[in-house]
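Appendix B, example 12.
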Amino acid sequence: MPTDSNAPRLDDPIYDAQYREPEAHTERYADLASIVRQLRQDCPWDREQTHVSVKHLLIEEAYEVVEAIESGDPTELQKELGDVLLHVLFHSTIAEEAGRFTVQDVIDAEIDKLVRRHPHVFGDLETNDPDAVLANWERIKQQESDNEDADDALKSALDGVPAHLPSLLRAFRMQEKAAGVGFDFPDTQSTWAKVEEELAEFKEADSSDDAEARAQEFGDLLFALVNYGRQVGINPENALRGTNARFQERFQYIEAQLHAREKSWDDVSLDEADALWDEAKTALRSPSASNAP
């Protein structure tokens, strides 16, 4: 089994004693891990699953965690985090059965990574700057990649950004990675100038009959906007999720008003619908779900 012998052990912990996990917590973790092992043997459905057959469920569970966070419901978040933990144990158990790795190997590797990438906590580096912490994390991660693949093809600073991320989030993460090695606009004014440049190019392409060029320039415009958002501290995925939530809430308010008045969309003009939209904005003045604690 692949185990990192350099990973810190509980008999010689690197962390402060005050942060040690209560024994009751570790006992319940052991109970859950044991239940997963038994399910793999005694449940016909669990027994036939593979990494591949349940991979889409892990993606679904991750989105449900995000939804629970945005709802501000701690009970729902608790449940959804439990489902994600279940998947971690389930995949680890499948791998252990095949002799690939165990959940201890997973934990050892994560402990080693967290300690290695936080030298300002577990080492001699001193900093209180969150941006410096992030930059150092990316630098250490790149060094790790270079060391692991010294004999292979050239590694990219963009490696590690999953191809299946939502496109806005993937653009954001690639830009973060590029900025981590110094490939970034020097200030927000320069970044916004790029947005205006891409907008002008999209307008020019939009006046043509070239659908492919329009789509390409529109994508470039979105990418530039994501980059500006990143520089001013806005995560585009979270921002758009908030906008989507507000749009849905306001649109459904209009639908409810039309229903109450025994009308359909065909019975109202665009101006009347716009007035209802403004009414919805006033009636539904509340913090966006994306900003919920």
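DSSP finds twelve helices and no strands in the chain. The chain has a mean pLDDT of 88.
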